[in-house]
Amino acid sequence: FGLARALGCTVEKLEGDDDASGGKRCLTGHVVTRWYRAPELILLQEDYTESIDIWSVACIYAELLGMLEEAKMKVNERAPLFPGHTCFPLSPHPHDAQKDNPNYYTKGNRDQLVKIFDLIGTPSAEEIRRLDGEDAQEYVCGFRKREGSGVKKQFDHLDTQGSDLLDQMLKFDPRQRIAVRTALDHPLFERVRARDLETTASEAISLDFEHEVSLDEKSMRKLFLQEVR
Predict the structure, then answer these.
(1) Looking at CB atoms within 10 Å, which of 135, 147, 159, 195 has the fewest?
(2) Please, what's the b/e burial string for 88-104 (b: 16 or more CB within 10 A of its CB; e: otherwise)?
């Protein structure tokens, strides 16, 4: 639960610009472990949404596809989808003298965004224009333009429906990324989905203990366990 948090608002409100009290929403920028981090988090976009979780789930699902018999991969050959060694600026190179130089990452081949662009391609000019902040726009423009190897090309031979869903989940622009409800209606889940067993919360879930002034890890784990039970 180290990266979990309650937003204290409805999904509809989350998609807006302000929180329930009329103030600006403040979400932490350093969230999600590097290999599962969505582009908008890497580029320090402040108004990210639950779409970051769609990206993370896609990265995990890609690893599961690699475990299929058709993949013919040995256990020691399995790897994350985007195994970046750095993730500028959140996780720069710890020792290199050029660690604060953006060009060090855009011209190299080991940064997280490089791994992402190698698969899905660099964003279009319009997608770059929609990024908040000139620094983010200039940084993305610094990467070599490429189409990417393509999600479907890499995964179609393993599972056609799975690769189609994966392709819709791994979109650079979170507004083009498939939504949870739409994803659940994908043909991939047709044989396993039990709609009569599904439930949806009638209101936003509130974790009152998050308002505590001081909570150590042990106390938080205990409170989360009580909530789950």
Answers:
(1) 195
(2) bbbbbbeeeeeeeebeb
